[in-house]
Sequence to fold (141 residues):
Amino acid sequence: MQANRINRSHSARGFSLVELLAVIMLLGIIAGIVVPKVFGQAEGGKWKASKAKVSAVSSKVEMYALDVGRPPEQLKDLVTKPGNAENWAGPYAKESDLTDAWGRVFEYKAPGEHGDFDVVMLGSDGQPGGEQWARDYGNWE
Fold:
């Protein structure tokens, strides 16, 4: 009877070191596959949200231009009235409207290279150029 008890307690010891290492390796492999896909989807979502914000900021610049007679010299003029802007009926935007999903202020140029003004989002890397989610997007596209 005692031999039976010894066998049961001996077999219920738990996981061996090899089994534990195998599980850790399997979890590492799964994480190596899943994490980049999830991260890529998050970057894609931020890029698409920033693209929508470029369009919204462009509309706000156009509203400013209709009231004042010209596009603003800088994007901050949409938030606070500049000294030389008669007929300013703003604020046209909030500070948070002027930034992309990564927290960087949009590039702005008036007069622009593609029209009266250019509003540009520099993508996930914040640098000109780039591919996929790091690529730039402008209001003329």
Summary: The longest strand covers residues 118-121.
